[in-house]
Amino acid sequence: MRTIFFGTPEISVPALEALAATTEVAAVVCQPDRPAGRGLTLKPPPVKLCAERLGIPCAQPEKIRTRQFVQWVQAQQPTVAVVLAYGHILGPRLLAAPQQGCMNLHASLLPRYRGAAPINWAVVGGESKTGISLMQMDEGCDTGPVFCQRATPIGPNETAGELYERLGVLAAEVIRDDLPRAVTGQLEALPQDDEAATVAPLLRKADGLVDWTGAAGPIHDRVRGMTPWPGAHTTLDQKRLRLLETRLGARDGEHGPPGTIISIDDQGAEVACGEGSIVLQRAQLAGKKALPAIELHRGRAIAAGTRLGTEK
Question: Which domains does the chain show, CATH number per domain?
Answer without folding.
Answer: 2-196 (3.40.50.170), 205-298 (3.10.25.10)
